[in-house]
């Protein structure tokens, strides 16, 4: 089959000799997960999943990781902790760039500030987001709009405005990367009942489809676009929902993997998607939830637990 494939799909001049050595000698494989020298931007990076990811990027060899969120104090605190990590490459550092990604002017400010200290960006982790819990009958229009604006429109604007910097260093062999934070709530059924998250679930479904569109649009520019769809990770955003739905132990017991997400689960996934190991993955959405969305078709326990409140 490999001979047929080569003869049909590859120009004669570029056909490799299909020898045992060719098939076993993997180019620079020991460094395939390394992010040595990469420049990274993480929105929503001062806490939770964004901070886990920022730590992973730095520890995988990135030279600069820009952390942004609305609150300057939170950014500074995160950067201080990141720069104190013991295993960073010489000269590697996290940099605080406070900005309000929910506003177009805030995204413009972020891009300008980053562009003043680097000529390119290799990796953009579009992670900033928000949620809102409210029953169907009383759900305010303003809340739905707020969630959709930050979780969808601002994600698009952030990617669009960073595209020129992302194009600078991207190549066929090592494209630049965009990673979007979606959610299993955008794949299955999210929270229902008194604390329903209609806007959040709709927004995460939207960015999953946005990922596919941008993958095709930006692929020829040597920018790959993928999404991650986390399940429950202990975080400030999830804490309220965890509490009213029985707590972390209840969620862990219902998960096929019998636990919730850990920081390393997010950090490892985004490092993989940013590395040469994922240089031919484009338009994918990777769930990181222990299998919960496939086991129950949604966010485990949310519908039945919150409906009783």
From TrEMBL:
<dbReference type="GO" id="GO:0016491">
    <property type="term" value="F:oxidoreductase activity"/>
</dbReference>
<dbReference type="InterPro" id="IPR002347">
    <property type="entry name" value="SDR_fam"/>
</dbReference>
<keyword id="KW-0521">NADP</keyword>
<dbReference type="GO" id="GO:0009688">
    <property type="term" value="P:abscisic acid biosynthetic process"/>
</dbReference>
<dbReference type="InterPro" id="IPR036291">
    <property type="entry name" value="NAD(P)-bd_dom_sf"/>
</dbReference>
<keyword id="KW-0560">Oxidoreductase</keyword>
<dbReference type="InterPro" id="IPR052178">
    <property type="entry name" value="Sec_Metab_Biosynth_SDR"/>
</dbReference>
<dbReference type="InterPro" id="IPR020904">
    <property type="entry name" value="Sc_DH/Rdtase_CS"/>
</dbReference>
<protein>
    <submittedName>
        <fullName>Rhamnolipids biosynthesis 3-oxoacyl-[acyl-carrier-protein] reductase</fullName>
    </submittedName>
</protein>
<comment type="similarity">
    <text>Belongs to the short-chain dehydrogenases/reductases (SDR) family.</text>
</comment>
<dbReference type="Pfam" id="PF13561">
    <property type="entry name" value="adh_short_C2"/>
</dbReference>
């Amino acid at each position: 089959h490999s001979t047929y494939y080569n003869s049909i799909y590859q120009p004669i001049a570029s056909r490799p000799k299909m020898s045992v050595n060719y098939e076993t000698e993997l180019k620079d494989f020991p460094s395939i997960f390394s992010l040595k020298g990469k420049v990274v931007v993480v929105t929503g990076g001062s806490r939770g999943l964004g901070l886990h990811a920022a730590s992973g990027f730095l520890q995988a060899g990135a030279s600069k990781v820009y952390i942004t969120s609305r609150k300057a104090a939170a950014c500074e605190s995160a950067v201080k902790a990141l720069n104190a990590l013991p295993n960073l490459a010489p000269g590697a550092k996290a940099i605080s760039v406070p900005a309000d990604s929910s506003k177009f002017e805030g995204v413009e400010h972020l891009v300008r500030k980053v562009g003043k200290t680097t000529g390119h960006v290799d990796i953009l982790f579009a992670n900033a987001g928000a949620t809102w819990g409210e029953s169907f009958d009383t759900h305010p229009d303003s809340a739905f709009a707020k969630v959709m604006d930050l979780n969808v429109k601002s994600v698009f604007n952030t990617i669009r405005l960073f595209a020129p910097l992302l194009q600078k260093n991207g190549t066929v062999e090592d494209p630049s990367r965009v990673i979007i934070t979606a959610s299993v709530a955008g794949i299955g059924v999210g929270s229902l009942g008194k604390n329903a998250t209609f806007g959040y679930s709709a927004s995460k479904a939207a960015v999953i489809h946005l990922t596919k569109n941008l993958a095709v649009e930006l692929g020829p520019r040597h920018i790959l676009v993928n999404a991650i769809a986390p399940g429950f990770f202990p975080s400030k955003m999830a804490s309220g929902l965890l509490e009213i739905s029985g707590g972390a132990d209840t969620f862990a017991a219902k998960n096929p993997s019998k636990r919730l997400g850990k920081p390393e689960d997010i950090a490892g996934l985004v490092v993989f998607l940013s590395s040469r190991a994922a240089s031919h993955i484009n338009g994918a959405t990777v769930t990181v939830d222990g299998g919960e969305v496939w086991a129950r078709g949604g966010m485990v326990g949310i519908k039945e637990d919150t409906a009783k409140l």
